[in-house]
Amino acid sequence: MANPDDSEAFERAMREVDPLEGGAVRVAPPRRRRQVEPGTLEFELTTWGAHQQGLKVGADPLHLRRLEMGDFPPQITLDLHHLAADEARDEVRRSLRHARRSGLRVLRIVHGRGRRSADGPVLKEALPKWLAQPPHGRSVLAFTTTGSFGAGGGATLVLLSKKRSP
Fold it and tell me: Residue 11 CA to chain centroid, in angstroms?
């Protein structure tokens, strides 16, 4: 049973709110697909709007959920602004290699949202393929674009597997 005080508080809070034109808004469901390209590892990719995320096939979905929730703070940041796609890909590879050798697990890759590019978000769209490419792709467990925290969709958090002891 609803508390009358709650109803009154809701009515007061909504007094200044205008309803949306056209009634209810339909939200498109996330698109899921498997990325399977020659020379890449398999990832379950999910995209909706400007948000994209990936989980290596067979990896625990909890890794992605925890990455999304901010449970894994970034240990290193790579800024790809003002780099051409080839330069950006090489920087991503170098950073993944450095992170693995250093025992780091979480990278923030700032790629921008592509708002100033005539071709749209080139780096953001290419990043999932780069993350899935061997040899460093084997160590990528999950990735997600930043949402309400971080760079507001202009960055991707990448979770690497734990480095094995020799």
Answer: 37
Q: Which amino acid is at 129?
A: K
In the chain, where the domains are located: 31-160
CA nearest neighbour of 109 among 121, 91, 134, 87: 91
Count of residues making up the chain: 166
- Given strand 43-48, what is the order of strands in its sheet? 31-35, 43-48, 51-56, 140-145, 155-160, 106-110, 76-79
CATH architecture of 31-160: 2-Layer Sandwich (3.30)
What is the pTM assigned to this prediction? 0.73
* pLDDT tens digits along 109-118: 998 766 666 6
Question: What are the pLDDT digits (tens) for 18-55?
Answer: 766 666 655 555 566 655 555 666 888 888 777 888 99
Task: Give long-range contacts, CB 8 A cutoff, 24+ apart: 61-69.
Answer: 63/141, 63/142, 63/159, 64/141, 64/142, 64/144, 64/159, 67/106, 67/142, 67/143, 67/144, 67/157, 67/159, 68/144, 68/147
Output DSSP code: residue 28: P
Q: Which residue has the tokens 């990455």?
A: 67
